[in-house]
Design brief:
Layout (H helix, E strand, L loop, with lengths): L1 E4 L4 E8 L5 E12 L20 E2 L8 E3 L9 E7 L1 E2 L8 E8 L2 E8 L4 E4 L2 E4 L8 E2 L6 E2 L1 E2 L9 E2 L7 E2 L17 E2 L36 H6 L21 E3 L7 E5 L8 E4 L3 E9 L5 E4 L1 E8 L4 E11 L7 E10 L5
Parallel strand pairs: 1-25, 6-23, 13-16
Antiparallel strand pairs: 2-3, 3-24, 4-5, 6-18, 7-12, 8-9, 8-19, 9-17, 10-11, 14-15, 19-20, 21-22, 21-25, 23-24
Length: 343
């Protein structure tokens, strides 16, 4: 099939099946814009690529997700994510309050400089945060981790919500507490008070598909599934598995354009970054041999903001049911309606 792209953005298509084996053609458009002081939604010359799979900061399974895959055959929620760097307050130099205001949704995370546990008058206390210049927005610096310090493997354990993080201790841990690092990102209402606390990991980025809560929606891959469903997904698979961020970064799908977004704590001078979600409507015209052309609108599923590179991207998605062979679709024509957002 031919793809004609009448936009300056990235487009792609994927042949997939849904949970119950129905054929789908998943259509994706990804638009990248400059994050500028004028808040004018002008597309960048270099468009960010469409990710067909999750990309990681390091080795998969040993590091956090940098960018989540840009596809799903079904979405119940839209989502936002923030990647890049965070900074201390210029007066404090040791900590800051990070926040994202997205329409009526607000998320706040406290950022600290490096801290360790130290015993004081018989109690474990965090040391004062050290001064710092910037910190990468990565879940490695949020609460979590894997503890294999015990000699017996049965006593090894990990934080299912973030196995690559900092501060987690297994029940029978042999790790010394004195000098152990604390996470640098914490929710203000869940600050660590004890080395054995297990608060919710705090971050603004993407979650790996084998982390909770995503893995809880992946379904049951047991003997019954092998006999009755394989190669289909399990019956209890939920599309919430495709929610690639923390629950407090989700909103109804599709995301609405026109909403204002304000990010605070992500610049060295602590000046807010702001944008307004553009209002345009990507469309795809599908030409087929056996039938008249079909028009398929794409819905906004994700906003990703890169505070360091100063761009943001919008990912639009559609899942078109395919009746008959994929080869019957001869052409895909992508174009946009509504607000013009490129020169």
């Amino acid at each position: 099939m031919d793809i004609k792209n009448h936009t300056p953005f990235q487009v792609d298509r994927m042949a997939m099946t849904d949970r119950d084996g129905h054929d789908l053609l998943v259509l994706v458009l990804k638009a990248t814009f400059a994050l500028n002081e004028e808040q004018t939604p002008l597309s960048t010359e270099e468009q960010q690529p469409i990710h067909l799979a999750d990309t990681y900061h390091g080795e998969p399974g040993e590091s956090s997700v940098e960018y989540a895959a840009d596809w799903a055959f079904d979405k119940r929620h839209a989502e936002f994510a923030v990647v890049g760097e965070a900074y201390p307050h210029p007066r404090l130099r040791r900590e800051n309050r990070l926040s994202v205001q997205f329409g009526d949704l607000e998320k706040t995370v406290h950022l600290f400089g490096k801290r360790v546990w130290k015993k004081s008058f018989g109690f474990w206390k965090p040391t004062d945060p050290e001064p710092f210049e910037s910190v990468p927005l990565r879940y490695e610096l949020a609460f979590g981790g894997t503890d294999r310090s015990h000699d017996e493997e049965k006593h090894h354990d990990w934080e299912n919500r973030n196995p690559v993080g900092t501060g987690f201790r297994a029940k029978y841990s042999r790790q010394p507490i004195e000098g152990a690092l604390l996470p640098q990102f914490e929710y203000p209402d869940q600050l660590l008070k004890s080395p054995d606390d297990r608060p919710e990991p705090a971050g603004f980025g993407f979650l790996a598909p084998n982390w909770q809560p995503r893995v809880d929606h992946a379904g049951t891959y047991d003997e019954r599934w092998q006999k009755e469903r394989l190669p289909l997904l399990p019956e209890d698979f939920s599309s919430e598995h495709f929610d690639a961020v923390a629950p407090n970064q989700l909103m109804p799908f599709p995301m609405e354009g026109g909403q204002s977004v304000v990010l605070t704590g992500f610049t060295a001078d602590n000046e807010p970054l702001a944008l307004t979600v553009p209002q345009f409507k990507p469309q795809c015209r599908l030409a087929r041999d056996s039938e008249d052309p079909s028009l398929c609108p794409l819905d906004l599923m994700r906003l990703t903001v890169n505070t360091q590179a100063r761009w943001y991207s919008l990912t639009y998605l559609a899942a078109f049911p395919v009746v008959g062979p994929y080869l019957d679709i001869t052409e895909l024509l992508f174009y946009c309606e509504g607000e013009r957002v490129w020169a």
